Amino acid sequence: MRYQAIQATCQAFPGQSVQRLCVLAQVSRSAYYRWLSKPHTTKKDQTTEQLKELLKQAYWEMKGKWGYRRLTMLINRRYNCHYNHKRIRRLLVEMNLRAVIRRPRHSCTIARGQNYEPNLLNRDFTASRLNEKWVTDVTYLTYGNGQKAYLSAIKDLYNGEIISYVVSQRNDNPLVMKTLKQAFELYPTATPLLHSDRGFQYTSKEFARLTAEHGITRSMSRVGKCIDNAPMESFWSHYKDEAYYGQHFKTYEDLISSIDQYIYFYNHQRCQTKLNGLTPVEYRHQAA
Fold this sequence. Notes:
The chain is α/β, with parallel strands linked by helices. Helix content is about 45%, strand content about 10%. Strands 3-2-1-4-5 form a five-stranded mixed sheet, sandwiched between helices. Helix 1 (about 1-10) runs antiparallel to helix 2 (about 20-25). About 25% of the residues are buried.
């Protein structure tokens, strides 16, 4: 504090003798000049620099795909802190670290078949309990030299958890039926509202029979209205941006391994703002 007092006095009264001030402060002039030559940072500055390093690590760990809100949750959870998202955003701007913007998806499933159901979900994507509302869909992937693969999944709207998924090299009825049976094995007594698009698997007689056997109420998106199944489309978008685009999977097994890793990460580690900063599995355990 003595050195700061001498420095402040010299700045306020330029004519003051440094030697005289050092005598009054009972410090040597050499010690004062040695202190003056060193860089001075406050505790707040040190904390800010440390936070910047943590943000850089988290940003590149997530491959630049996460914005300031999600990075704020990650930093606060990982280091048991309480940083404000506005501060995180300001520091990211200072470091010129910007999240990659997700690409918009405009394609929609062409309706086929005859076993259509009305849109009972009606874009009400909230659920008050587990297994009240499920959404499902199939997405197209590639691996190797352009070989095709298909990922089918079911998502619980209560906590956003992916409760079942199946990968196949064929986009056929068994792909969807296996996904549905996997969900029934996990929740054998569940009788949710199950929403899908009008893809041929979902309008098939086999799908209608299997859902009826388990007391499932079916709901389907309208033609050309992808937003009717927005939660599932949102998951595909997150998965592809965070774990698929920019990657090259040499084999079918490599693709499956990547999907397994991402869905585990999504369910167990990827915190969400709408879940009060919890992961889907944590939110489910909290409800239980």
